[in-house]
Specification:
alpha/beta, 12 helices, globular, binds nicotinamide-adenine-dinucleotide, binds 2'deoxy-thymidine-5'-diphospho-alpha-D-glucose
Amino acid sequence: MASKRNIVITGGAGFIGSHVVRLFVNKYPDYNIINLDKLTYAGNLANLKDIEGRTNYKFVKMDICDFDAFYQLMQDEKIDGVIHLAAESHVDRSIKDPFTFAKTNVMGTLSLLQAAKLYWESLPEKYEGKRFYHISTDEVYGALSMTHPEGIEPPFSTTASSSEHHLAYGEDFFYETTKYNPHSPYSASKAGSDHFVRAFHDTYGMPTIVTNCSNNYGPYQFPEKLIPLFINNIRHRKPLPVYGKGENVRDWLFVEDHARAIDVIFHNGKVAETYNIGGFNEWKNIDIIKVVIKTVDRLLGRREGEDMDLITYVTDRLGHDARYAIDSTKLQRELGWEPSLQFEEGIEKTVKWYLDNQEWMDNITSGDYEKYYEEMYKGK
Ligand code: NAD
Ligand code: DAU
């Protein structure tokens, strides 16, 4: 690919997007990086304060559903790469308001694809050197079961992983070939968008790539998601609403490792391929919550574990998927990516970041969000 590139990163003011924008702006001074974001409740330009004055970076406030505006941007900026992260991303919100998810995640993605198609097909070289990279989730694959091989209690290690540290709660994993089986309105909308991306390759020959990643954690995550929400609640000694019995399993990856994977795949991934991204790092919610409580307590100078009594079991999430576990062997083997951080290091770094950046957190959690949060958890 060319050394000079004009790239749009959608959703760059959100959690993962801001890490991707930062990585690309710092690593590729010759690229022209455009951060396109509508700045919904989840978008926050404070996430990118450290790079906002950089000459290879520009922010554009735009809705991905605005076809005309995006088509114009493609032409004006001679865009040759799209890295698409903009989405409605929170499962609980999708249960309350599925329409917004269909609109942004499905129609918004389709709008970007169609605008990119019209622009790239109008060029003499057409799709040569172009790339449309769509960031998706492991949730499209549905839910895995928690199985106990005879005589062994989970977690147990598995041969499916190249990592020595892998613990698993079942024998099966999500592979790139796993059939889609989404359960929540969020995952259904992401599945719909993935299908459109692949259809644009198969029908028009657009050079697309799709990746499906597991749960991310790290700095700048909106505090409606488990880890930042709980860190903030522990700090303020507020109850920690654990859904159901807290036994659901998620597979956690440090967000900067996801951003590094996106960089590697954008540059070296094969067109029309799918890559799973994950760190072979499964945790039951209740176990990760206990680690977070102990870490916050220790870093705040409290007695380690003294806030355990904040754990409050509440009504389960509707349709709550039991277990996610990604097999990322293909990405590790074919493109040489692997996670850089052990979970213990990652969680320490993450908790420390939120405690050191209380102003960032307080700006988000005051005002309207406070009202939304109270409404969301009323009756739980
Ligand atoms: P986020 O909610 O933190 O950020 C989403 C961003 O998209 C925000 O900046 C928001 O303003 C923007 N946005 C929303 N609607 C828009 C619209 N109509 N037009 C333009 N911008 C809009 O999300 P995130 O957690 O950073 O997730 C980013 C992407 O990665 C999503 O596509 C999500 O499905 C996927 N993903 C997330 C995770 C995770 O653990 N967070 C894991 C796997 C995949
Ligand atoms: O797997 C990738 C997905 O991970 C992404 O596609 C989504 O965008 C992202 O939001 C995340 O989805 P989850 O639903 O897994 O993340 P969340 O942080 O909302 O919840 C993690 C687990 O913790 C889940 O089993 C529900 C539970 N939970 C969550 C919250 C917010 C609680 O028990 N209590 C809570 O208050």
